[in-house]
Structures are given as C-alpha cells and as structure tokens.
Amino acid sequence: MSFAIIRNQNHKVGAVGLVDRHNERRNKNYSNPDIKHERSCENYHIKSPQGSYWETFNKIRDRHQLKGNLRLKGEKQSTVLCEFIITSDKSFFDRLGAERTKRFFEDAYQFVTAKVGGEQFVVAAVVHMDEATPHMHITFIPTVLGKDRKGQPCRRINCSEFWKGRDSYARLQDEWYDWIAHTCNYDLERGIKGSAAEHLFVAEYKLKKTQEQLEQTERQSQEIGSIESISAKNLPLNTVALKRTDYDKLKASAEAYITTRDNADKTAAENAELHKQVDKLHEEKEALRYERDVLTDQLYNVNQSFERFYDEVGDNQVLYERNKQLTRENETIGNQVHELTDEIKALKEQYSKMSENNENLTKTVEEKTAEVVRLTGELTALQKLHKELQDKWEKVMKFIQEHRLKEQWEKYIAAPIRKKLSI
Fold it and tell me: What is the pTM assigned to this prediction?
C-alpha cells in the first residue's frame, strides 16, 4: 500500500536563495544522483515565481501589506518561508499514469492554498519529474491573522504562530490524508503517527531499515540454533529416524538459514554502503552550510549596493519623466502665448477702428498684455527648470553607462515608473 506523504521545511533568509536554485533547477551541478538533467525539461509549475524567490517574497509582502518584526540580517534570522514537499512512492504514480499524476498535484495544490490562507501567499509550486519519484515543492509565506499597532486587522508573517501547538505537524498529516484520500479519492494510506521515518533523510531511513533487517536475521539465527534440541533414533545402514514434526522443523530451519545467510550478507553490504552515504551527506550538509553563510553575506552586500543605487538614481528617473511632462507643458504654454499675441494684435487693429469703444478695448488690451507678461515669466521659469533637469538627467545617464547598469535601470526603475505615470 502507498502512503500519502507531506513534509514541511522552514527556511530563514539565508536559505531562500539555495531553495530557489534547487527547486527551479538553477544550479549546474547537483550532488543528488537521482536527478536526471535530461528530464528536467519535464518539470512544470502550478504557480511560477515572479522573479527570484526573494523578489517574489518582497512583492507579496508589499502587495498585501504583511506585518511582522522580521530579523533579516545577522545570525538570528527570522523564518520567512515554509516549504511543503508532497509525494508518495513510485509505484503509486506508475499506477496513476501521466494525466492523473498531474491531477494529483493540482488537487494537492488546492489543499495547500486553503491551508496557508490563500494562493496569494504562495511563492512558487513546482513539480519535479526528473527524479526517481515525482514530487512537488510548494514554498509559501507563513502568515497569521492579527492586529497592527492601531488595532486594525492585518496579516503578520510569523512561522512559530503558524505552526503553534505541539500537534500541529500531526494535524497537518491528518488533514492532508483526509483531503487526498477521502475528498479526492486517491488510494493512499496515512503514515504511521509519530513515525520518525517522516523526519529521516532518505539514506538514514534506508540505513535504519537495514539495521532492523539485521536484527531480524539475528533472531532467525537464534531460532535455527534450537534444532540442537532435536533427538534422532539410530537405525541400521547409517540412517536415523525423526518425528515428523522434528523433520519439518529441521527442514524449515535449514531453508531459513540459507535465505537468512544470503540476506544477511546482502544487508551487511547495503548497510556499509549506506553508512558511507550518510557520512557523505553529512559532509555535504556542512559544505552547504558554509556556502549558505558565504552567500548570505554576498546577498547582503548586493542588497546594500542596490539600495544605494536606487536612492541615487531612482529619484532622477522621476525627474526625467517629470521633465518630459514639463517640456510638453512648455510647448502648450508657448502655443498659448502665440495665440494671445495674435489676439492682442487683432484687438489693437479693432481699437484703431472703433475709437468709441476705446476705453473698454484699452482695458482688454492691458489685461491681455498682463496675461502675456505672466505667461512669458512662467515660460522663462519652465525653460530654466528644463535646463536644470536636463543637466541632472545627463549626469544620471553617465553614471549608468559608467557602471553598466542600463539593464537594471530599465527593469527595476524606468519600466515601473513609466507604467505608473501612464495609469
């Protein structure tokens, strides 16, 4: 019988990049021998991230105004993402076939979105088909309902509150099994409650099973030793007579001994190999931990550099867009000045022909003349501002060219601002 398997992993800030590269297959090399790179093209998303996992996290956080006192730097970082890994065994997916396997993961995705408060808090959901057994990684932001400092309802990022209660993981297993087996009608069993196998690494779990097999082998050997108690009656021609029950017991013990000896040799060899795998995995774990620390420092430096760049250049992009608006306004006012000048000229001609309305026409001419003077002053001020903005813009573009930041400028600053101004 196949089991309904769901596991959770919590990730701090420093691990987000590693999770991103593994789940999205951004690495060039993997220590996991089960990954078949030629099949990675078969992996697919139920929900794709909006950029990197860290970028997607910040977009979701800003869009939904998520609160929370998060420690994003230093040694004691906050947990910002959780990750469900959903699967069963290979025989289960072989029985389902390709189409129903896809449907299985879609049903699983519905369960997760309901569990975490909605699809809007899911960073990414990707199905891996390039390993021995199909499985899905769903990363999400752990949020809980709460109130802000003003007492208004809000959502807060808080992993410990999301998993509050000693039995929270057991309840997850119960809820998952009830959904996938009873609601969705997949032929699966629930895992054994409290089983430590749920938390063991694959190689360690196999090692535990082989150790159990060795213990069973020893018990069988002890049972085989009990044949020494069998008594035989000597008969002529070097033959002996046994009771039927003793004969059956002796035969069964001999067969069991042969099978047990072969299994013991095989199990011992597998046990030794798994010990090597576990040692290797521990070494890789330490190497990854070191790499995580290095990458965390690098990520912090990159974020600091980008923040400085954004502060220095971002406002100037706004000025550049404003400058273009002022140029258009400048042209409009210029046209208005020309139109008013023509009107004054026409009024002066009319004044010379209509002396009886001299007083009214004089007043109108004075008002129009004053309007021309005012607009001319505004035009001069706009031309001066246009010159200042043009100088600033040239400095910004020179900075971008010198630091080769044109691509980042276009993606993170120019495009969003143009979109905002166009709304």
Answer: 0.49
